[in-house]
Specification:
This protein has helices spanning 2-27, 30-53, 117-121; strands at 59-61, 74-77, 82-89, 97-103, 109-114. It is built from three helices and five strands, in the order ααβββββα. Helix content is 45%, strand content 23%. Strands 1, 2, 3, 4 and 5 form a five-stranded antiparallel sheet that branches. The protein is elongated. It has one domain. With 122 residues, the protein is of the alpha+beta class.
């Protein structure tokens, strides 16, 4: 008889603990705010990359549009501001160029590193 009560009590405590932790995890606004900030940084990096490369119709692989066949992409907070990496190309017959762009806290381009020789000449 005592084992039934103990098992029932254990199941009740575990169930309530899981329910409370799940509720706290679902209602936590921090991950959503972080995701929104990262998306804003990536969108700003796309715009800045198009301006810096000087072409509006670039194919861009970045954290919002990953293509594992092209390579890895990252977005991370870099004090102060953001760093976004990815790949781009000008057309189907062009090779992919890796890039790393640093943005300020206002999401303005700070610097661009790329293996594209045309951009390096500028």
């Amino acid at each position: 008889m005592n084992h039934r009560i103990g098992r029932s009590l254990f199941a009740l405590v575990v169930g309530l603990t899981v329910a409370v932790l799940s509720y706290q995890w679902i209602t936590n606004p921090v991950p959503r705010e972080q995701r929104q900030a990262e998306e804003s940084a990536v969108l700003a990096s796309r715009h800045a990359l198009r301006e810096l490369v000087g072409q509006d119709d670039l194919e861009i692989v970045d954290p919002l549009a990953p293509d594992r066949k092209v390579g890895k992409v990252y977005v991370y907070a870099e004090a102060p501001g953001w760093a976004v990496s990815g790949h781009y190309r000008r057309g189907e017959d062009e090779p992919w160029h890796a890039y790393l762009i640093y943005l300020t806290t206002e999401l303005k381009p700070d610097s661009l590193k790329t293996d594209d020789p045309e951009v390096a000449v500028r």
